[in-house]
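Appendix B. One record, verbatim.
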Amino acid sequence: ERTNRPEVMSDLGGFGALCELPGKYEHPVLVAATDGVGTK
């Protein structure tokens, strides 16, 4: 929670994080996700 910033658009616990990107683009959104390989 310490890294939560005004640009973050999603809450903790989701599969992907949504973050607004400042700059020259109209309504840009970065989606970042991580996934482990899981068990075999």
